[in-house]
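Incident log, support desk, overnight shift.

02:14 A customer reports that sequence design results differ from what the structure should imply. Their input is reproduced verbatim below. On-call engineer (initials T.W.) acknowledged and began investigating.
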């Protein structure tokens, strides 16, 4: 299943590079910081001179933002195509970032005992992992004593919602609600084993994928995330929930002053993204 996901992300990469969604004008990330909420930088603190590892970094659009703030930055991703593209993007932007292709579960071995001050992950990463316990143990090995883990991830409630009347098929179809008038619980919030999906189009604009259209997801409730982190010996210091997203999940969402997106004011305020800070 992880191999299927690797091939699927390889196939997605060329589509994402050319998409309006990622905004890679002239082959460069136009504004990497647009993917971050202001509170993320507040939680992360000063990064100048810090060793930062971005797990499941995909094209490195966020990874570059850490390097721009003076961090010694490493990005790690399962997809070889994504890592190659991320290296090209960093080179064109004249930003120094080290990229490594590896399964996140193998990160401690692949990075050969290196440790980091900050590990960052999220925004569509965790539901491509079947088991969070070995993931959390790997992170504990990769953090220096006192080092911090920061997760900014789509809320499991977001993944459980679907437009009503339902015309979509799962959390990987983003930004297309066909002008639905309301939301309903339509997918698992809690873990229920592997979910096999097949989609000829990825979550961005652009053409259909060329092959490798099957992929697997695993839903993780907040309890899965929290319990894995605590069991691995990390201490949770902060948890946030926000009603905003860095992209337009549903057509009727409105842009905020910070450039993110939220549901209209006359709709219930629900968590769409959470951020968790933990320390070794």
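02:41 Re-run completed on a clean worker. Output:
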């Amino acid at each position: 299943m992880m191999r299927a996901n690797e091939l699927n992300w390889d196939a997605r990469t060329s589509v994402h590079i050319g998409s309006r969604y990622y905004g890679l004008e002239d082959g460069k990330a136009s504004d990497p910081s647009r993917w971050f909420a202001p509170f993320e930088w507040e939680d992360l603190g000063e990064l100048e001179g810090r060793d930062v590892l971005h797990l499941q970094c995909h094209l490195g659009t966020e990874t570059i933002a850490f390097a721009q703030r003076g961090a010694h930055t490493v990005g790690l991703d399962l997809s070889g195509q994504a890592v190659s593209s991320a290296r090209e993007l960093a080179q064109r932007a004249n930003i120094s970032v080290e990229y490594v292709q590896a399964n996140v579960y193998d990160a401690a071995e692949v990075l050969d005992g290196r440790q980091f001050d900050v590990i960052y992950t999220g925004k569509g990463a965790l539901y491509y992992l079947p088991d969070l316990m070995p993931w959390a143990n790997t992170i504990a090995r990769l953090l220096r004593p006192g080092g911090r883990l920061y997760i900014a991830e789509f809320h499991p409630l977001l993944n459980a919602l679907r437009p009503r009347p339902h015309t979509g098929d799962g959390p990987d179809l983003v930004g297309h609600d066909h002008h639905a008038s309301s939301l309903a619980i339509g997918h698992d919030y809690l873990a229920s084993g592997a979910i096999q999906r097949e989609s000829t189009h990825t979550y961005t604009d652009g053409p259909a994928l060329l092959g490798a259209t099957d992929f697997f997801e695993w839903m993780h409730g907040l309890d899965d995330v929290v319990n894995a982190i605590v069991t691995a010996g990390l201490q949770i210091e902060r948890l946030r929930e926000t009603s905003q997203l860095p992209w337009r999940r549903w057509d009727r969402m409105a842009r905020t002053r910070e450039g993110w997106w939220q549901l209209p004011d006359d709709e219930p305020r629900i968590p769409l993204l959470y951020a968790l800070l933990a320390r070794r």
